[in-house]
Each structure stands twice: as C-alpha cells, then as structure tokens.
C-alpha cells in the first residue's frame, strides 16, 4: 500500500460522519450547564468533564471502547475555548473512566506555565509537526508509543522552540486532507485542526499495528464527535442569518473579507485595545495564583 493511498477514503468517511450531524441535528438544541463557576456548553475546559447527557454519548464512549493507539500529550498554546485538542482529552478521559483505566491523554498549558515532561529518554515519543526535518508518520508508526501535538493557531508555532521539545523526532501526515474546520486561515494548504490531525495520525498508527478493523474504525471516528456537533452548530447559525456555512469555501472567503483590517481604521484601533486588555487579564491571572 502506498503512503497516503487511503487518505481519500478516510477523508470521505470523515466527511460523511460530520455531515450526519447536520442531517440528524444530533444533540440539538445544546443545553448549557453550570460547571467550575460558569455556564458552559458541551464540556468544561477546566475540569475536562463532558456536559452532554450520557444517553446522548456515542456508544464507543459509553462502553469505554474509544481509545487512541498511542498515549497523547497536548501542548496548549491557544485559548482553551478555541482549542480542539480538548476534544480528545475530554472524550478519551470519559471513555477510559468507564473501564477505570489510567488517563492516556495529558494536557500542558503554556499560558498557565504547566511543567512539561522531560522527553529526553523516551525513544518512542514523537512530535507531530511538519518541517524540513520531519519524516512521514507511516515510516515510524509501528514505533510510536506517545505522540506530542501542539494545539496553537496555524500562524503561531513558537511553542515548537520549547527546550523540552527540541530533541523529539518530528513526524508529519502524508497528503494531509482538506480541513473540515469552520475557522479560516491564510497559512496555506494542508493546515488542519488539532483534533483532525490526531484522528488521521491515529488511523495511520492503528493501520501500521494491524489494529484497524471495522469495529475499531467506528469507535475511533468518535474522537471527532464534539467537533461534529460544534461544526453543525456553526452551520445552523449561519443558515439562520442567511450566510454560507463557515466551513465552506464561500463561508471562509466571507470571513476573510469581514476581518480585513486597515491600519488606523476604527476596527484596527478596537483590535489593539482588545489585545492590550487580554494581555492585562493574563498578567493579573498569573499574579493572583
């Protein structure tokens, strides 16, 4: 089998899975719940608890069958509410708790100054990061015991320079598919969300280890469950406003046009003020700890 030869099929299956949320209106309407001192939807970014009623969970999570083929470390360098890596953390934790097994997904928040592990002696730990010195994940899939991913904006990759990550071997996906994400970017082709990258990396490693059979494929795709709900919610909201779905080509073009900022314009000045306010909030939070 050639590298990347099944990506079209995998991409098609994921597209059908995600579109089913639009067709069935799964888990809609989404009720908000109070957790960790505030009202939240779907899951809590503090305690990482799934807030959807258990009877609505996919069977794979209710039965504890959703499991990644490797341990996963998420290096978070983004806002918690925007980071799709949280989906893997929340869903895998809930699935593992059914079997009362140890957590295999860990989160390290750069903004909160979490201490990163020392990966120096971990030969079977790799970081998923495309670069000139990265190798196809298929070349070492059989050796991957722990995968490190960075959850950050497409245009922000400074966290790759963290000293704890410098000696990790880098891997990349072959023929990364078009993203199903609803957020736009100008970073070029092949840029997908963190949870999509985790899903496709999981497929490659499971195939290499002969762990991918029909039942396991159905279980593994549920790592995209929260993504599917959120994606569908953005489409429904756009339809109500008479706008194209934000994950469509027209929708992303519209978002780019709306967010164009001319230097010195009123929007530019508002953005600067908002940026200063956010930085001040971060500074105050650090001082209060």
UniProtKB/TrEMBL annotation:
Gene Ontology molecular-function annotations: tRNA-uridine aminocarboxypropyltransferase activity
Biased composition (Basic and acidic residues): 249-267
Function: Catalyzes the formation of 3-(3-amino-3-carboxypropyl)uridine (acp3U) at position 20 in the D-loop of several cytoplasmic tRNAs (acp3U(20)).
Protein name as it appears in the record: tRNA-uridine aminocarboxypropyltransferase 1
Organism ancestry: Eukaryota, Sar, Stramenopiles, Ochrophyta, Bacillariophyta
EC main group: transferase
Region feature Disordered, mapped onto this chain: 239-267
Entry-linked InterPro entries: DTW, tRNA_Mod/Golgi_Maint
A Pfam cross-reference name: DTW
Organism: Chaetoceros tenuissimus
PANTHER family: NATURAL KILLER CELL-SPECIFIC ANTIGEN KLIP1, TRNA-URIDINE AMINOCARBOXYPROPYLTRANSFERASE 1
Residues of the signal peptide: none
Keyword Nucleus tagged: yes
EC number(s) recorded for this UniProt protein: 2.5.1.25
GO cellular component assignments: nucleus
Subcellular location(s) of the protein: Nucleus
GO biological process: tRNA processing
